[in-house]
Amino acid sequence: xxxxxxxxxxxxxxARLGLYLALRHWCRPGGRVLMSPVNDDxxxxxxxxxxxxxxQAPLDPRDGSLDAAAVPEETWQGLAxxxxxxxxxxxxxxPELRARCDALGIPLIEDAAHAxxxxxxxxxxxxxxxxxxxxxxxxxxxxxxxxVAVADPAVRDELATLRDALLHxxxxxxxxxxxxxxxxxxxxxxxxxxxxxxxxxxxxGQREREGIRMPLRAGALKDAVAxxxxxxxxxxxVRVDLHDYRLRPGHARLRRTTRLLRAxxxxxxxxxxxxHDLLDSPWGAPAPRxxxxxxxxxxxxxxxxxxxxxxxxxxRVTTGYLYDPPLDDYAGEPFTAPCADPGPAxxxxxxxxxxxxLRAEAVLSALRESGAQPVKPDRG
Length: 380
Fold this sequence. Notes:
380 residues, seven-stranded mixed beta sheet, Aspartate Aminotransferase, domain 2, 11 strands, 16 helices, alpha/beta
């Protein structure tokens, strides 16, 4: 990855831990961080765990990207950092955000979990900020790990020291479970036992989300905020759906991740082809910023998303990576500064259907047969 990005990279067992490292290094507790309201709730809790105040940014309703021009001037003042999302791999306006951060003297941190192959202005996403956090569980399918890319080589060693202090030891049983999981999941899908498997995971405490968002538990969250910065205080929120996010990886896990990473270019080519087909459909959003991109998921815009999800399910196409409602509606003002213009984010969160580009043909067939109606935002 250093060769791909031209930047020093540090391996971490999860992208969420990598983001926590970056925030703790560059931001003093109590600072305000501009971020997207259409994002995984885990990211909100990582920002809170770092002792920071999330500030929700306005979005472009066409693709869910940060709308830098719509951020009020008073919001820019007093920020400690900006965190991009690059939702589904669609690049945020990094040059504009970089210029703003430079003028304010604050860091730009890129969340590139969905954007390992995306580019902008001829540069890879993840090379605009002081740091960028990538996930190896998305395009590569490694189901574990990530890395932090940094502009300053000296910072890598400092982040490594902080990482090592936060890691938990792993054992042979954990490693064995990780190695057999992909095969077990494939068997479950083949036998159409996905529903039963999810119920079993919930009983074992390995699957905490009943819906799109995890339970907020406001009373307990207030206590955790009072203890921040502290990853331990937020463990029950940050670990959701990834209980090994702080585990030191064993050799077998690293070997498997390395093997899958070697196939990244082929995977990116397949994502790029499926992205083109999906965006070229009646439900396609505008072309991503920066042109042709290998999106991790393609946000199709449909009038009745629940009906579209049901139509896909009938074809055994699972819809994931839904981020509805926006984080300011989900968490409320006690835990985040709300967006000054929440309408576009609400619209996008309600109508965006994240489609897997590797299943583009099945997705498009299901939408055509179901009569799903495309929808366009009122503005933009």
